[in-house]
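Weekly puzzle thread! Below is a chain. First person to post its structure in C-alpha cell form gets bragging rights.
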Amino acid sequence: MYAVLAQITAAVHFLGLAYIVFGGFLGWRWPRALLPHLPFALWGLLVVLGINPQHPLTWLEDQFRMAQGLDPMPGGFNEYYIYGTLFPHELLPHVAVLVISLVILSYVGTLVLWYRRRQRERAPSEAHEG
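Winning reply:
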C-alpha cells in the first residue's frame, strides 16, 4: 500500500515539474492562468538557484518510503529521480537556463498575445467613433 502511495506521490510530483516548466504556456490561451502558475514558477526558481526548500511532496514520499522500511530519498526528489537519470549532472546549468527561458518565453508570449487581443477588441470601437 505504501509503495503505491509513494509512486502516486512521485507521479504527482513529476506532473508538478511539468507544470512549472510548461504551465505558463496555458496563459497563451487563458492569460489568467499565469496567476496560479506564478507561485510554482517562483518555487522552481528557488530550486534552480540552489535554494532547495523541501517540497511537501518530497516529504510525503519520504514518509511513504519510511513506512515501507526504506530510507528517505538521498538528496531529495530532483537528485533521486532527475539529476544523473534524465540528464547528466554536468548539464544541470544548461537545463536550468532552458527551463528559465521556457518560463520567461511563456510569460512574454502571454503578455504579447494579451496585448494584441486588447488592441483587436479596441479597434472596432475606435472605428465607430471616427
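Puzzle host: Confirmed. Bonus trivia for everyone else. Residues 46 and 52 are 7 Å apart (CA to CA).
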